[in-house]
Design a protein that fits this description.
Order of helices and strands: EHHEHHEHEHHHEEEEEEEHEHEEEHEH
Number of helices: 12
Protein name: Isopenicillin N synthase-like Fe(2+) 2OG dioxygenase domain-containing protein
Family: Belongs to the iron/ascorbate-dependent oxidoreductase family.
Strand content: 15-25%
Pfam families: 2OG-FeII_Oxy
Keywords: Iron, Metal-binding, Oxidoreductase
Structural class: alpha+beta
Number of strands: 16
Distance between the termini: 44 Å
Helix content: 25-40%
Largest sheet: 10 strands, mixed
GO molecular function, one term: oxidoreductase activity
Radius of gyration: 20 Å
Length: 380
């Protein structure tokens, strides 16, 4: 399908079809292939899961707004830089977008039509966003080579936060984790792998509920970059609905900026990350995205000032990072690597770019994470 013929609306994958089964039915196999094809084509998809409740997301967003509305000195108590910020809070102006200085990434931006490029990040560093990492993982029954990625959680101590924190984090985090792990099963089947291939590889992954906060009082001017153009280092990223627009993604085969609109109902956004790119040999590419203040963000700010005058003006991204296990040997699957090479050759023959050719060297997942954390200034 030619790039101009591709829809600018992300495919909607119905997880309910998969969960209803039976596993080998025509309907299930078709939906799984649709999921895999969506990630190959777009690097992203919309996931429908009836189990995910809007009320749980709203409760989570309220708690996060209250947490990040605390004074900076209170938030700083929850920082753990010695653990590469992989638990607890990361304060604003700490994390750098990798693409601000990464040559292959800058070439991807240059290859886009000027009208489709992200906001200029070359002079933007670091991001004016805060983040909190809450682990949602099973402790490995073996001695991991990467203990910093498997440390115990931090619980904020302010009483009005602390009493709500564990229950709210676990409830919303479990909903997101279940949805994305079940999608991993669908993608396995859709790629011709055993249904539990990716689930087993991620059984002891350091999964993270990872709300990201942007203060729209301080950073609410149009064209402010809240999170610069980048891709994620994990396997799959899943998002609940944010209260404020501003997330743009770039589909691999369109070269077009797509403002994300999650349809109403029990729907979530899912994006491919670097670990999925590596294990598929580039058949699925990690999806690029940015978060910016645009006209729609400004309109929403004004609307919420009127409707909720007592609520903090903080943009929360309701995000969960699903990882493969840190000690897992990350090696491209040979059948998928061959398909990736064929896809790249077809794109080049058709006169379309696909970024620099990448060699996906065998390594532990934890090593890939370390490499990426150094790029974004979270690890020395």
């Amino acid at each position: 399908m030619a790039a101009q013929e591709l829809s600018m609306d992300l495919p909607v994958i119905d997880l309910d079809v998969f969960l209803a089964g039976p596993a080998g039915s025509e309907a299930v196999i078709a939906e799984c292939k649709k999921a895999a094809d969506a990630l190959i084509t777009y690097g992203a998809l919309v996931l429908h899961d009836s189990r995910v409740l809007k009320e749980d997301n709203e409760t989570f967003l309220d708690l996060m707004e209250d947490y990040f509305n605390q004074p900076q000195e209170e938030l700083k108590k929850d920082e753990r830089p010695e653990l590469h910020y992989q638990i607890g809070v990361t304060l604003e102006n700490t994390e750098k977008p990798k693409c601000a200085a990464d040559e292959p990434c800058l070439r991807i931006i240059e290859a886009l039509e000027p009208s489709e490029r992200p906001l200029d990040i070359t002079a933007h560093s670091p991001d004016p966003k805060c983040r909190f990492f809450w682990k949602m993982n099973d402790i490995p029954p073996y001695e991991t080579q990467f203990p910093a990625f498997n440390a115990a959680n931090v619980v904020p101590q302010a009483e009005h936060i602390k009493k709500r924190w564990p229950t709210t984090m676990e409830q919303w985090g479990t909903s997101m984790k279940n949805a994305v792990a079940d999608l991993a099963d669908m993608v396995s089947l859709g790629l011709g792998l055993p249904v539990d291939f990716f689930r087993n590889a991620g059984r002891y992954g350091p999964h993270l509920l990872a709300p990201t906060a942007s203060d729209l009082v301080k950073y609410g001017k149009k064209d402010t970059i809240l999170a610069g153009f980048h891709s994620d280092l994990n396997f799959l990223t899943i998002h609940g609905r944010s209260r404020y627009p501003g997330l743009n993604i770039w589909a691999r085969n369109t070269g077009k900026r797509i403002p994300v609109r999650i349809p109403p109902g029990n729907n979530l956004l899912v994006q491919a990350g670097k670990q999925l790119e590596h294990i598929t040999g580039g058949l699925i590419k990690a999806g690029f995205h940015e978060v910016v203040v645009n006209e729609q963000t400004l309109a929403t700010i004004e609307a919420r000032k009127t409707a909720f005058p007592d609520r903090p003006l903080i943009r929360i991204s309701s995000t969960f990072f699903w990882h493969l296990s840190s000690d897992y040997d990350l090696v491209p699957i040979s059948t998928l690597l061959e398909k990736a090479r064929q896809l790249r050759a077809e794109k080049i023959q058709a006169g379309k770019g696909d970024g620099d050719e990448v060699t996906y060297e065998p390594m532990k997942v934890g090593q890939l994470v370390r490499n990426e954390l150094k790029h974004i200034a979270l690890m020395a």
